[in-house]
Description:
five-stranded mixed sheet, 3 domains, Outer membrane lipoprotein wza fold like, wza like fold, 266 residues, 6 helices, alpha+beta
Amino acid sequence: MKHALLICILAVFLLLPSGPAAANDYVVSFEDVLDISVYDHPEMTTTVRVDGNGNVVLPLINGVHVEGLSVSKVAETITGLLSGDYIINPQVNVFVKQFREQKASVLGQVVKPGLYELRPRTTLLELISQAGGLTVEAGEGAVVKREARGSGDTAPQEVVVDLDRLVEQGDISLNLQILDGDKIFIDKAGVFYVTGEVRNPNSYKYKDRLTVIKAIAMAGGFSDTASTGSVNIVRKQDGKEKVLNKVDLDELVQPEDVIVVPESFF
């Protein structure tokens, strides 16, 4: 179910506009090649590559730091530097002529883990799709690890994304834009076990806030001979097995729990 929803959400997202607004929001990186022009001043037109320090050199301006700025912010910055002393009311246009090759890795519970080249504004869902989608053992969380960027960042970032909310509930606000160098890890779901007098005893994928009664429902419900008031849980704690007898059906299940439904003899 999660896989089908992911495909549907991704298809809708890809149909969203990706025109000028998206281009203006692209964050410039070193080795990008920019076309910069000033209206009615052809002598200012230039094509320049962002150097290793994140700067570009322009006519009349020795150096402008542009790495980490959106395209629209680069235009705004150059406009401010040219205004007054050089040009009256300059109209600056900035266009990314060539994008630096950018890559991100996705590991864990995807079909084809590895390193992938990013297109402009690649999102988390798009990257998961490039990696073949989620495996059947995928958990409900994705961790995005991101290195510090620019002078304002002092430490790497780590963002945890709730895949259940993103994929199954369609919360697109969690569909992060993936940046160059990001490392994404899709965790593995925990499992629990239901045995005894249920219709489908088996192992099942653990979900957060799962109760005993919901777990039994996942196993097809009680059999006709089940003792519904005598459900036990075998739980590992500190490396040892502990038996919880006659648990409440609203008891929260933990990963690796074994739910045992005994037979009724009456």
